[in-house]
Sequence to fold (129 residues):
Amino acid sequence: MTIQVNYLENGIGIEIIASGIVTGEEVIEAHKEVYNEENFKKQKYKIVDRTDCTKYQVYPEDIEKIAEIDDEASRINPNLLIAVISTTSLQHGMTRMWQAYMKNNVFITKNFQDRISADNWINSYIETN
Fold:
């Protein structure tokens, strides 16, 4: 599997690391895993890091399904910050599509080109709120 899920800061943060060839099915399964965890209610942020992704085989119908999963999860924990690291224009475009597909759109989301910027945004947001 090319997706690794790590729990950070005793579960208040999650990072999803995508590397190599990534498929929509793998992304969907990772989202289901994260949102089925018992500690999802206490999570404050999620980082989706695609820095090491060499091929992104995620299609619009996959993005729509991911948005549905996120919409459902937002009913349980609407206060989640989501930082997405996109290193290619395809990844960036798919992130924009995902943001558009989310009906509830209550998560605070932002797209970044590098991990340092994403981490700084999350730390700054958590410190001020």
Q: What stands out?
A: DSSP finds four helices and five strands in the chain.
